[in-house]
Amino acid sequence: MTPVMAARECAACIPTGVSGALAARVAALDWAAIAEELQAHGCATTGVLLAPAQCSALAESYASDSLFRSRIVMARHGFGRGEYKYFAYPLPETIALLRSALYPPLSAIANAWNEAMGIEPRYPGDHAIYLDRCYRVGQQRPTPLLLRYGPGDYNCLHQDLYGDLVFPLQVAFLLSRPGEDFTGGEFVLTEQRPRMQSRAEVVPLAQGEGVIFPVHHRPVRGTRGTYRVTMRHGVSRLRCGRRYTLGIIFHDAA
Questions:
Q1: How far, in Å, are 130, 167, 182, 196 from residue 141 at the CA level?
Q2: Does some domain include residue 78?
């Protein structure tokens, strides 16, 4: 089964039980308020979407190498300290459902952003159709990932660009309990504004909560119209414990 076929199968299914409740929670989010938060601050939180049992199951899956296509040790590449793994297709059900459920409302926001910035690409409302575009240009490797941090680990400021096709928004879910499983390790977002000093945003998250943020740039309204600013994200140094994060990226990799 190709990635596109898998995405279509996920989108066509009718979730039941725990998965159905998760899909309903995503649909019930105040997407107008999320769009406003993204416009005002460059990020927005979802509130708690994943139950503790779901978070634990995802974090524990890090040990199952068969679920993943590759493992990255950050220090080897100058990315920071810690490590992460990219999931393989077919994606676990919870991750596939999150990807397909979050994409449609985010595509509407992404289209509004590109229109404001005068950028040509427009995104279909169906994630399977977008994945088909990725597939046709050779971007066929799944990008959802699971990150693991221990004491002293951190993630340098970066952008998740994996090819020519880039969906401009992504979501990170905290799977561990801040203050109990770990301390430190805050999600950090920076905004590099033209002819101005950079602005930083620290986003506190609860277990099971997601933060929506730009992959590489976003529109900002100025006195002379709308301009784009460059965005980067990372994680500050963990003081103690262990921190797991699920990253949902909507474009696939070359």
A1: 14, 15, 31, 37
A2: yes
**CA geometry: angle 72, 77, 79, nearest 5 deg:** 85
Residue 61 lies in a domain: yes
The 3-class SS string of the chain reads CCHHHHHHHHHHCCCCHHHHHHHHHHHCCCHHHHHHHHHHHCCEEEEECCCHHHHHHHHHHHHCHHHEEEEEEHHHHCCEECEEEEECCCCCHHHHHHHHHHHHHHHHHHHHHHHHHCCCCCCCCCHHHHHHHHHHCCCCECCCEEEEECCCCEEEEECCCCCCCCCCEEEEEECCCECCCEEECCEEEEEECCCCCCEEEEECCCCCEEEEEECCEEEEEECCEEEEEEEEEEECCEEEECEEEEEECCCCEC
Range of the domain at 164: 3-248
pTM of the model: 0.92
CB 249 within 8 A of CB 161: no
8 pLDDT band, cuts 50/70/90, is very low
Domain count, the chain: 1
* CATH assignment at residue 28: 2.60.120.620
54 inside domain = yes
What's the CA gap between 51 and 38, in Å, rounded?
A: 24
pLDDT tens-digit map of 138-177: 999 999 999 999 999 999 999 999 999 999 999 999 999 9
